[in-house]
Amino acid sequence: MNNSITARFKLDYGEFQLSVNLSLPNSGVTVLFGHSGSGKTTLLRCIAGLQQAQQSYLEINGSVWDDSDVGIFLPTHKRPLGYVFQDANLFSHLTVRENLNFGLKRIKAHPPRPSSKGGDFQRIVNLLGIEHLLDRMPERLSGGEKQRVAIARALVLNPEILLMDEPLASLDTKRKQEILPFLSRLNQELNIPVLYVTHSHQEVAQLADYLVVLEAGKVQASGSLSETLSRLDLPLSQDREATTVWNVTIAEHETDFHLTRVAFDGGSLSLPAIEAKIGTPLRIQIYARDVSIVLEIPRATSILNVLPATIIDIVDGESGQTIVRLKVGNQPLLAHITRKSAVILNLKISKAVFVQIKGMSILN
Prior knowledge:
Strand content: 35-45%
Order of helices and strands: EEEHEEEEHHHHEHEHEEHEEEEEEEEHEE
Shape: globular
Structural class: alpha+beta
Number of strands: 21
Radius of gyration: 22 Å
Number of helices: 9
Largest sheet: 6 strands, mixed
Distance between the termini: 32 Å
């Protein structure tokens, strides 16, 4: 069976043209990222069959859903997918339980694939923490609760792929922070590929395994999250919120100092104490603005995380800023420093340096 998702679309929609050719992983969360009008939602709608492109080819799990050359186009109701919109769109006259049960008849038409862990009603209810909401009407739910129910409704259909179109866009910051951990758990516990549309840097950092950057209907870049975020030819690396995401594992608890040491591919870091078992995987985020560069190990510094690194690339940004891409062990890392500092330190590609990481945030 094909272990990737192949999506090729050419769509001429008046003043907007979509032209993409993608091979995406058939696991984890693939985030479609870009500014408004970049083509994210149009691409998702083509994959869902809600919009038909003039030229198209879509293959998922070895099954062709769309091929304009031979006249194949499965309508949306025949595609084994789940779709979560910006608004929950729950049936207001049905309870949460009745909303979840509404589409279950579709499962008969699309039997579960052997590797699927979706479609189990109770498992999904527990995973999204909505057991206590089952007998409520939608009007009695908060915005975050409605979206969790909408996600559950899509998952109980046992889809082969879950499509999510900016599901947090209508929520305030507090509600977003409530629901993000549930979305992270979906990735960790369900064997269903997710295509997730957003223009939020935070959602990219917290959820993405694979990142597709769209601009004006075309793919600017696609690849693993850490590598794509650190590419200097993309606007993401020059943004004030530029960040690097590392996957780490808890290695040791330094109880005397209320610290936890985490290991990554090629080194380790000290973080404020984390209540989790040794061996627990974590995802951490390092802002480029919180990374400084030195030529020698400081003799005295309050910064605990000083690591050897090699400069991979360096470019001048705006307003006197220089963006440096480094390698720490086998992990990419971005640093934003002043152009004057880059000149004083004589920074060049392949130069061995040390980085001081002043702060990190734990994403999940």
